[in-house]
């Protein structure tokens, strides 16, 4: 029997952790080092704001950081005896989860995005023009550049609303008995959000089956209920790979659309895509087939 991919990643994480502990010169500015250096008092943790603990895109993170500074929630508390330190097993688990959360869902989202762009060629051309202008102005496409692609982000967000890559990911434990209408959710019960149904609920999304990227535009996104869009979950326990996944997707799409036009092929599904559920993910049942024509 061969070793599982997870087992290989865990062993790699263990070896890197050991090397960094033994040799300070191997320190890096990355997530692993942040976890190794983490030491937070319980008082600091309890006083940290909801927004500060929630992963978002880079614009949101900067805003939340500024709000935290204004509210005094990002300062270190002194004189507290009890500290929270991540164990080595927790660091390894989060390191592996980071890659799983940032790659599998991204590849699925890119497949859905390709389907959308082929079915809406006018939207594809508008995204391409935005990418072309950015590349012309900046001379490159990198982390800082792709975060300026506002319409591309709108299209990606609306694609993940129509086709959320993960549909049974968002779950929470009820901390106390909670009465809602004629039912009571008991303390300790697991509560799972039906992401796909939430994203297609007409109470939150007018004409939910219509693909409309403008829902997420700067002029209209304030109309969106903050918890009605959850491809990455919501709140302090949302997806650890959120920013990494969004960056990957935007960079891949920008570079692809700068050089290629996506058009239908013999196997391309036009209209609604046939999907399938695999444990926790929503995936294209028959794959996504498109033709890439070099510009």
From TrEMBL:
Q: What is its main location?
A: endoplasmic reticulum
Residues that bind heme: 239
Q: What is its subcellular localisation?
A: Endoplasmic reticulum membrane; Microsome membrane
Compositionally skewed regions (Polar residues) per UniProt: 62-74
Q: Does the keyword Transmembrane helix apply?
A: no
Q: Does the keyword Iron-sulfur apply?
A: no
Can you say what this protein is called? Answer: Cytochrome P450
Provide the species name. Answer: Medioppia subpectinata
